[in-house]
Specification:
This protein starts with a strand and ends with a helix. The protein is α/β, with parallel strands linked by helices and 380 residues long.
Length: 380
């Protein structure tokens, strides 16, 4: 059974309220009627009860009906409660002000019982329609949020799967790209980056070696030292990765016959994640002293995300087992990296790594590739 509607009548004349009580007594099966002799009491009543409609006189001592109307319409919590104003027939200015403030309806005094009931019922029907629309909008908003979350999760999963594809042909690297993502996030946070930046870095840094897809197996999997020619080929993975991730019109032109969103395929050019991923892929082998590749950038010419990934990448590589090297102890890893401070690595970024070693190593042990690595660490 539908619950009764709650109607609050506000007037500072107790005899008028008693008259309403007697006149509307037969409506008690349909409505629960509440009464207040002042604006303050009315607000307390609204706070303590569910109120569907407020019927208030304008002229009251102290705070008047317009004050109550203003409080209700300006309150985020109360603004959905419709207010019916009772005014005298000669108060045209007050009627205009009441409507401007958001009154749902106006009714002149003296009040005719049938008119009052009809106005309240009309306002209740309007409120029911507004409530239904509001509920539908809330349901739609929830569904949109759920769908957006699903799409976001799919996009993130695609990024991580693409990152793993770059390592797929080299089984010895295991969880390397995932660890680099975590390490990069931690270092960026230590450096004071905002949440949007280090979240974006966490998602894109695992793509730093995606260009290895284009490197021949004979070079990528070679256990021994690379020749000069092979080394040059290996270094091209930076440009390859950047080309894979960078968008050009020629790459997506055939897709333009489809419209995936209101902005069409052109909106893909504004994807911060892909832009950062392409930058990292291209620049993560540049060196602080300008002797890196592919373009020998130096110092702050190198994007911060690439400087961070360079430190995270080398730290994990030195700390992990490879075909060409055993696991190094943390002391040896740090000694090697400190020798390269200001040469290979940004001093600030390396300092941020060292300040975050507890958190970084916690992640590394959770994502360790082999038992051998853990045992080597303990034996050191």
């Amino acid at each position: 059974m539908e619950s009764k509607k709650h109607i609050l009548f506000v007037d500072d004349d107790p005899y008028f309220l008693k008259g309403l009580f007697r006149a509307l007594h037969q409506m008690s099966d349909e409505w629960t009627m509440l009464y207040a002799e002042s604006v303050d009491v009315a607000l307390e009543t609204i706070e303590q009860n569910r109120v569907d409609v407020v019927v208030t006189d304008f002229r009251m001592d102290g705070k008047d009906g317009l004050d109550l109307l203003r409080i209700i319409t300006e309150s985020e919590k109360l603004s959905d409660i419709p207010v019916v104003m009772l005014t005298g027939s000669d108060e045209s200015d007050l009627k205009r002000r009441a409507l401007e403030l958001g009154a749902a309806d106006l009714l002149g005094k003296p009040v005719i019982r049938e008119d009052l009931i009809a106005r309240i019922r009309s306002v209740l029907r309007l409120k029911e329609s507004q409530d239904a629309l509001r509920n539908m909008n809330q349901i739609l908003e929830i569904r949109v949020l759920e769908r957006t979350a699903e799409l976001e999760q799919s996009r993130l999963e695609m990024i991580w799967r693409l990152a793993k594809a770059g390592e797929y042909r080299d089984e010895t690297t295991g969880n390397h790209v995932i660890r680099v993502g975590h390490f990069s996030r931690i270092i960026a946070k230590q450096l004071g980056a905002d949440e949007d930046y280090f979240r974006c870095l966490f998602l894109t840094s695992p793509l730093h070696d995606i260009g290895k897809i284009g490197i021949p197996d004979s070079i990528l999997g070679k256990p021994g030292k690379l020749t000069d020619e092979e080394r040059l080929i290996m270094q091209t993975h930076c440009e390859i990765g950047s080309k894979i991730l960078s968008r050009s019109q020629s790459d997506v032109g055939p897709l333009s016959i489809y419209s995936f969103s209101s902005g069409g395929v052109e909106s893909a050019g504004n994807n911060d994640l892909i832009e950062m991923a392409a930058t990292i892929a291209l620049r993560h082998h540049e060196r602080w002293d300008g002797t890196g590749y592919p373009d020998r950038l130096a110092g702050n010419q190198i994007p911060m995300e690439a400087l961070i990934v360079a430190v995270a990448d080398v730290y994990d590589a030195l700390s992990s087992e490879r075909p060409y090297k055993p696991v190094f102890t943390q002391e040896k890893v740090l000694a090697i990296m400190r020798e390269q401070c200001g040469l290979h690595f940004s001093p600030d970024v390396l300092a941020a790594l060292e300040s975050s070693l507890d958190e970084i190593n916690s992640i590394r042990y959770q994502l360790v590739d082999t038992i051998t690595e853990v045992e080597s660490e303990k034996a050191a």
